[in-house]
Amino acid sequence: MTELKVEADPAELGFDPHRLRRVDARLSRYVDEGLLPGWLTVVTRRGKIAHLSTRGHRDVEAGLPVEVDTRWRIFSMTKPVTSVAAMMLFEEGAFDLTDPIHHWLPEFAEPTVYTKGSALRPVTEPAREPIRVWHLLTHTAGLTYGFHHAHPVDALYRAAGYEWSTPPDKDLAACTEEWASLPLAFQPGAEWNYSVATDVLGRLVEVVSGQSLDEFFAERILTPLGMTDTGFSVEGEAREQLAALYVPRPGTRQAVRNDAFGDAITRRPTCLQGGAGLASTAADYHRFTQFLLRGGELDGVRLLGPRTVRAMTSNHLPDGADLEAFGRPLFAEMPFNGFGFGLGFSVLQDPVKAKTLSSVGEYAWGGAASTAFWVDPAEELTVLFFTQLLPSSTHPLRQQLRQLVYQSLV
How confident is the model at residue 232 (pLDDT cuts 50, 70, 90)? Predict the structure, then answer.
């Protein structure tokens, strides 16, 4: 494991140390009030860690503290890793972003689109254009999630066993075939909707590369970047470092343990979810963010060209729209106002509209258990936050962390 430690005096990197300590003071209140079990945060500037802190427990019931090597379920922070995998294949000429995905996934040859009716009796029409690779990368394919509870197609996903997980007997190929058999929520390219699109993208990576997604990740991304503690399961001795998963108690929002869902990560899943399946450590994901900040290279290992990273972290929504204008007002891992979406990341377009102190061009995402990261190229800044509270919409952690970090930059 790569050692994670403070590498420079915060003042040398442009932070007011007194102001930076406000991060810990504010976030610690969530632990003191029983709203979070514990957390870890990392603030890095110009490639050096300026602030690293932990509070609370990775396992409250066992009295085990959060430690630097704690392993976290990162859920949708898997999506940027899958997007990097796809763009590595793109750079090799395996496909164009405009290619229809049915060239490799024939189950998507004739998608249908919901037009009206109920989940029990949906009325559909043929898709007017094929689902293309860039639709998967940008969540504009018309796919959805069962947990949205906002559209009849969401209910069809739930009825098929897809809400917060996948059916236990289905692998990624089988899940992808079933998603293809369900109607799309809208015509491909017509809207933005947070969805299983990145899981389908993971299946595309498998078919194009001839490797399972975990094999591709390990061989092509995780091992080259030194991310040795990241994978689709936490087994053996590593379980000692695994944080427990918590949910808010209705009414009080006190963090309550949920092993029924949390223990799934302790065994290799049948379905390798490129949209939600990984567990990782702060040290590993720190290396991933530094690889992104450096334009696709870290410690002499280059996985992507800098032009590709710039393309991935640019807004790809039509006419420069933000998610508020082009997306559906549903749960996602980021706010919508002022944020566009690139190839696997949210992209900040308008800080004033977003009511944030961050910079134009910041790119980011988060996970369902309230984990989050962002990269700010203008300030050469990366920030990581880890905890294990599902869902991520329970507390305004990400907005508060942004204002706390940026007010300390002087």
Answer: very high
